[in-house]
Design brief:
Layout: H1 9-45, E1 56-57, H2 70-73, E2 79-83, E3 93-96
Antiparallel strand pairs: 1-2, 2-3
Length: 99
């Protein structure tokens, strides 16, 4: 390993870049492995909670893209779950709550 005073600026930058690239690639690899394990565990243990008729829900406002405040992302009027036409998919018939 050469010392800093024996290197030119270009050599120092190249050496520094190699070390940075190695650290970045190693961190990226470890992060991807950890994310994969977490996803696999979550997929194995996650359960969907059915929405029963009469339950109050908020509807996601699809007009907005990107980051917004919480109140902007959801419609202001709560809805009531009426039915779930197909038990195999999480799609529900809802009506706006009145009063």
């Amino acid at each position: 390993d050469t010392q800093g005073e024996d290197m030119t600026n270009d050599e120092w930058v190249k050496e520094h870049w190699k070390r940075y690239k190695y650290a970045y690639d190693l961190t990226k690899k470890h992060t991807e492995v950890a994310a994969s394990k977490q996803k696999k565990n979550n997929d194995r243990t996650a359960k969907t909670a059915p929405l029963l008729p009469g339950k109050r829900v908020l509807i996601l406002n699809k007009k907005f893209r990107g980051r917004h405040k919480l109140k902007d992302r959801w419609e202001s009027i709560p809805h009531i779950v009426e039915t779930q036409p197909n038990d195999d998919i999480p799609v529900y018939v809802v009506t706006p709550e009145r009063g």
